[in-house]
Amino acid sequence: MLGLEILKTAFVQLQANRMRSFLTTLGIMIGVGTVILIVAILEGYRGSLEKDLNILGANTFQVQRYEPVFFGSSWQRKYRKPLTYDLVRVIRENCPSVKYVGAQSMEGGIVIQYKNNHTNPNVFVYGATPDYPMTRGYFIADGHFFSEREVRAHAKVAIIGNDVVRRLFEHEDPLGKIIVFKGQRFRVIGVFERQGSSTFGQSRDNLVVIPITTWQDIFGKKNSVMLLVMARNAALFTAAQDEVIGVLRRARKVPPGKDNDFAIITNESLITTFNKTAGKIRMGGILLGVISLLVGGIGVMNIMLVSVTERTREIGVRRAVGARRVHIFNQFIMEATLLCFIGGLIGLTGGIVLALLIAAQLGWPVSIPTWAWLSAVVTTTIVGVASGFYPAYKAAYLNVIDALRYE
């Protein structure tokens, strides 16, 4: 009963000074809200990325000019010469552990037109080799993919995704129809199966794939291609990577002892790279949160000291009628803890709501792990106890006679 009475009294004291209590806990709210917001977005993205590990296809890895970058720019990268389409033949002829190897180039923001219908300027046009479906995990729903002969002939044929089909061919069969982009006419020979959304909510069906030679005729050959490599089986996955690395180092004349001038990208390496970047961002968010909690804790301590001064006579009266020091101490500790706890709950709620709003606007995944909100509750409680300890001690050990005389 005594504990409930102390809690009730603490609530009454906080309600008596609502605005002061709110302003006092503002630092706590910001600190907790910041950490929850960052953790919710990063954990959601990481979970979605791991769920979509088949983005590269089974036993498949990529060779890129540069390593992938998450949440940052690549302006500090050292220059590397582009990867070229010719390397496909080199890998195919010299890597026995490789089953398929292809190349891919991409240009975004393209408008695709069919008669009087046209898409938004957000379609991705890929130039690829015949191995594209196997190495990227795409499958043909209708029609067929282009052949090596059509690549060599620079054929103007295209395979389109479901988003393009819905936009241009709502009531027609797209096979055999002529679509136009960049002033060029292409015959549709295939339609991909529906893929759905990627990790950040971006559709994987909003694409057109054409022969890479035709793509280079339109967009140029200066851009580096991405090499897509599939090992013969899971047991040869590492061997295939080693063979490709050796072949590319020789082809690109990388001296012994020097780092590769290209990047090998696997599903696992994508997760590792993201986790490293996300870890730094998470630590930065936690540091900001700790600073805010520290400032908030100091604010709570200051207000509690003011409260002790304002209630000196009240403390003297309570001590005179029989209240023990431990009761006074617990009273002020409870008020400080309750103040921080409520601030933490408001910050937790605000961080979750803000994360959900951002997710809704940008299509980002959100996940709030148990440890995040549990840590927020425990941390704010600890901050409350720590911030209220000195004021509670000061209140409990006031001289009763001096307190009763205080005006």
Question: What would you say this structure looks like, in words?
Answer:
Helix content is 54%, strand content 15%. The protein is of the alpha+beta class and 407 residues long. It folds into 2 domains: 2-50 and 273-405, no CATH class; 81-261, no CATH class. Strands 1, 2, 5, 6, 7, 8, 9, 10, 11 and 12 form a 10-stranded mixed sheet that branches. A hairpin with a 2-residue loop joins strand 3 and strand 4. Helix 1 (2-16) packs across helix 12 (325-362), helix 3 runs antiparallel to helix 13 and helix 4 packs across helix 9 (237-251). The longest helix has 44 residues, at 267-310. The chain starts with a helix and ends with a helix. The model has no long low-confidence stretch (mean pLDDT 83).
Q: State the total count of DSSP E strands.
A: 12
Counting helices, strands and paired strands, the structural category is alpha+beta
| Fraction of helical residues | 40-55%
Average residue-wise pLDDT: 83
User: Total domains, how many?
Assistant: 2
Order of helices and strands: HHHEHEEEEHEHEHEEEHEHEHHHHH
* Shape call: elongated
Fraction in beta strands: 15-25%
Number of helices, counting only DSSP H or I runs of 4 residues or more: 14
Radius of gyration: 32 Å
End-to-end separation: 32 Å
* Poorly predicted segments: none
Largest sheet: 10 strands, mixed
